[in-house]
Every structure is written in C-alpha cells, then in structure tokens.
Amino acid sequence: MRKALIVWGGWDGHQPEQVAAIFKRQLEAEGFEVNVQDTLEAFRDGEYLKSLDLIVPVWTMGEIQQELVNNVSAAVQSGVGLAGCHGGMCDAFRVNVDWQFMTGGQWVAHPGNDGVHYKVEMRNSSSPLVEGIPDFEVASEQYYLHVDPAVEVLATTRFPVVDGPHAYNKPVDMPVAWTKRWGLGRVYYNSLGHQANIMEINEVQEMMRRGFLWCADGKELAAQVGEQAVAYTSMQDNQVN
Q: Are 66 and 234 in contact (CB under 8 A)?
C-alpha cells in the first residue's frame, strides 16, 4: 500500500484542517495509507520521509527550521512525490528560498482578494494531467506568483482581471498549475484553494487527484533508476533556524 503524509497548519484563514481532510479522503479513495499531522515536527525524521510515496503540505506562512526543509528536499530528491495547493505549498515559508526553489514558485499578490471571478484555462500539453478537463470559471483569490521558468505549466489564468497598478502592464497568462522535477522526485502545484469549498469543485478535485497520483507514481520509477540523485542542501548564510 502506498503511503502519504499530510502536514497541515499555519494561517487558519486557508482552512488547512478542512483542506487536509479533503485530501485525506481523496487519497484513501485511491488506496493510500494516509498519516495526517498538524506539526512541522512531522518533517523531523528524514528516513521516515524517504519511506513515503507522497508528501502533501497544507501550511500557509509561518517559519520552518532549515533542517526540516532539508529533510523534505532530500526525500523528494530520492523519489518521494510532493504535491499541494494554494498558500498551503507556495506561500508556506516566505523567508525560505530553498522551499520555494523546490516547489517552483512563491505567492506575491492576489489583486482583488477573495471572490474575484476568473477563468482557469488548460494548457495544451503532452501531459495527461489535464487531458479532458475543461476550462472553468471560479470565484476565489487569483494568485499572482513568481514562478520558476523550469516548470511545465498545465493551466493558466489571464491577468489582469482586477484594476490596480499592475493593470498598466500588458496582459499575462499566469500559471495556475504546474509540475517540475526535484532530483528523482516529482512536484505538483495548483494555486487554487483559498477556501476548502474550492477544493470540492469537480474540476479542481480531478486536477488534484491526478497530481497526487502522478507524484506518487514517481517513487517506483525513481527506484527503477537504481541510483540516488546527489542531495542538494542550502549553502545560504541567512538560513531560518
């Protein structure tokens, strides 16, 4: 049986406990054994993390010890999948650039705040992660992120929708969902999910389900490679301890 770890906490406004419960239900329906924790100490045991198939962070803002980031990073580099949504993964630890490097992006703004009506458009791609999922409208926070150019973009949204100083720039297609590689591991991110009810939307549920499975499937493929990627650890002086 495949094993997943969900770690929730941080800012309560994103309803992390409720989102974690939704993800737990989804993963159990796919046959995962799911461990749900509400403390970052869940990242303390590096060997345990490497025994998993999937890590799902649901933690907005806050601070994290560099050792814990290094443990998650090493696990993903070894082949463990990493998948999450909204601020629970790409606005988790604003001062830790190693976390941002691994996840592929960082939230910087959501013009108009919650309740903005916008369209999520699937990107033509060879990836099966969005095949057959239609474009759809949503009323939520529309995330503007700083994004790693190495990611494979799966879905986008058109900016600007809400007026403001950013509107004086030309329109851009901001990534909503993407994948990337971190060592031998697979990473999936979806910027939707300001409130738990957004994760109950059919299209969003399917996007997350496919993302979870794609990331977890990478563990077996990594094992077939027969070697470990060289573990990357931060060389920065301004680490969070």
A: yes
| CB contact at 8 A, 114 and 84 | no
| Separation between Cα atoms, residue 23 and residue 20, nearest integer Å | 5
Total Cβ atoms within 10 A of residue 159: 20
Looking at residue 161, what is its pLDDT?
A: 87
Contact 30, 54 (CB under 8 A): no
Give the C-alpha separation, 31 to 184, whole Å. Answer: 23
For 3-225, CATH gives 3.40.50.880
Sorted by where each begins, the domain ranges of the chain are 3-225
Q: Does residue 238 carry a pLDDT above 50?
A: no
236 to 95, 98, 109, 241: CA distances (angstroms): 12, 9, 26, 12
